[in-house]
Amino acid sequence: MVDLILFWHRRDLRIADNVGLASARQRSSKVVGVFCLDPGILERDDVAPARVAYLIGSLRELQENYTKAGSQLLILRGSPVQKIPDLATALKATAVFLNQDVEPYAQERDRLVTDALQTIGVHVHTFWDQLLHAPKEIMTGNSDPYTVYTPFWRNWRAKKKDEPAPTLQDIEGLTDAEQATSETAGTIALPTARDLGFVWENELLLPPGSQAACDRLMEFCDRAIAEYDEQRNFPAVSGTSHLSAAFKFGTIGIRTVWAAVQEIYNNSRSDETRKNIQTWQQEIAWREFYQHAMYFFPELAKGAYREPFKDFPWEDHEEHFQAWCEGKTGYPIVDAAMRQMNEIGWMHNRCRMIVASFLTKDLMINWQWGEKYFMQKLMDGDLSANNGGWQWSASSGMDPKPLRIFNPASQAQKFDPDGEYIRAWLPELRSLDTEQLVTGKIPQEERDRCDYPAPIVDHKQQQNRFKQLYQQQKTK
Fold this sequence. Notes:
The structure is a single chain. Helices cover 52% and strands 6% of the residues. It has 476 residues and is α/β, with parallel strands linked by helices. The protein folds into three domains: 1-129, 3-Layer(aba) Sandwich (Rossmann fold); 131-163 and 211-296, Alpha Horseshoe (Serine Threonine Protein Phosphatase 5, Tetratricopeptide repeat), CATH 1.25.40.80; 307-474, Orthogonal Bundle (DNA Cyclobutane Dipyrimidine Photolyase, subunit A, domain 3), CATH 1.10.579. Strands 3-2-1-4-5 form a five-stranded parallel β-sheet, with helices on both faces. α1 (19-27) links the parallel β1 (4-9) and β2. α6 (149-158) crosses α12 (271-296), α11 (254-267) packs antiparallel against α12 (271-296) and α16 runs antiparallel to α17 (383-394).
């Protein structure tokens, strides 16, 4: 009799290049996937409808891929601490395989599930899959975790990268009797996002699933990556990979991504092309830096890394925050970016830095308000990346040169010089002169005519005030 292994999917919604799943297949020819819709995640107040829509679409494709491979992906709904052991017991599974996560909630959840499974005699096997290098592989000479990116990048870059894991195929699934048993144990049909209470009716920037992610990777490698360093900061240009949601949910394997990009790098004869490719590789390393940081410093999820910001005197003006959320600050580049996120569930990375700087340095609102709002809207919302980006922008994180203040006008003039991005997301301002759009120097009569608000704060004054507060905190 062949041993049944359950593979518990979480942030690895694919059957190709999945380290834990490939290891399960090596151990047994009978592997069944399971995904648990966890109220501990879905009932939080920072869940984006776009993210749930992407999740459900990706699970639908994953079910189809399991069927093609000869098995099933089972769906549970409820606490994994109860549901996973109950299912393992009902199906007489000998082991549960899973890939590890860095987030504090996931770490505690997995510890509880592992304890419950081991108590009933089910073996648990864990792997690192979502990173090219597991946290403890990249350490300083003193065996400490890195808190500065540049030396992390040098160490990370020098390490050999694994090849993609083999795709799941030629496996056995549940018999009809076992399928009936699984239903008795609580498996359900895959619900829609609306069934779960989330409504998302707009098109997603990246369609769900592995096929769409692989197609987007190939498209990016064929075109934009060769000009990535020059184009990535211009929000009106499609110069980035748009793979962030695929990374968040693991609809594409990180080793697959690295192998594709490295092949282009190795075959390129142009120093300029290699420079562009390496810039994108550095972004992959940034992603891993933030994930390693979250693993070693789980307190980041709850507050500032740097001491002066643990009790920073934020002003937290509710009306200003609401204006920022709605894209009604009177600063065109800020408002365009916020409206883009509100409408499509995604925002260009340069704009994420602009609006984060504006919230914290101009409006003097706690970065955690912005961090949470992003998670409520972004289809690619990821705790480690989002937290790392917000703490970097707020000057509270792991940064050797933390005091940065973005001038919205300077940013718009440099990165949206023709006002193309602003016009796309602020249609009421399309008729204005480009100089007015990018400098934000719009006469009041024009603002009234366009029904566009006056600036809610003065950037120069707020910049000076923030610097004063910052210095006071440093010397406390």
